Amino acid sequence: MKKIILASTSTRRKEILENLGLEFEVYKSDVEEKVDKYLTFEENVERIALEKALKAAEELKNEDSLIIAAHTMLIYDNLIGMPSTEQEAFDILQQLSGKVHEIITGVCVFDTSENRGMFTHKKTKVKFMKLRDDFIRRFINEGETWQKAGAYSVVGKGALLVDEIEGCYTNVMGLPISLLGEMLVEFDMNII
After folding, report:
1. Contact criterion met (CB below 8 Å) for 5 and 68
2. Among 3.90.950.10, 3.20.20.70, 3.30.160.20, 3.20.20.140, what is the CATH number of 3-185?
3. Nearest-angstrom CA–CA distance, 24 and 3
4. In which element (H, E) is residue 121 found?
5. Run means of pLDDT, 10 residues per run, the chain, 192 residues
6. From residue 46, how far is each of 54, 88, 168 by CA, in Å?
């Protein structure tokens, strides 16, 4: 049986695969997650997921592995990244307050023995509650804003920010399971 490799150190992606009962290894794929301004956001997430998978495949070339890689972006008018200061976190959350933003995740599955892969993406819309400034400050003080695009995670207290989700919930976490399940079937692997 093929070894499954998750080309990501994301704790959420790891948790999602563990909840499916999959046995896998984690590989840190050091790929520069640079946005190409000549590509759409959808093309960028797919390209970066593919680059992560190919980097892992290159380093694990002698192993019979099925590599899963993903890259997620949060879009509201433009790309919103991770805050580096409390003020940036506040500004991001204030900007998203009461509005709908989009989560786009590119997913790539690559079979090292067949030297074959496929990649695609999934979109989910997230509407935030109308947030008061004092609530935003308290949320930032909880410490859940760091290392997260959009200054929040839908898991934990970040769920308090979310009014509605239209689409795949696990996509908002960083790995759309329904899409991944369909992709794995193409590599003769059924989760159930």
Report:
1. yes
2. 3.90.950.10
3. 7
4. strand 116-128
5. 89 93 90 92 97 92 88 94 95 97 97 94 98 97 90 93 97 96 92 82
6. 12, 27, 17
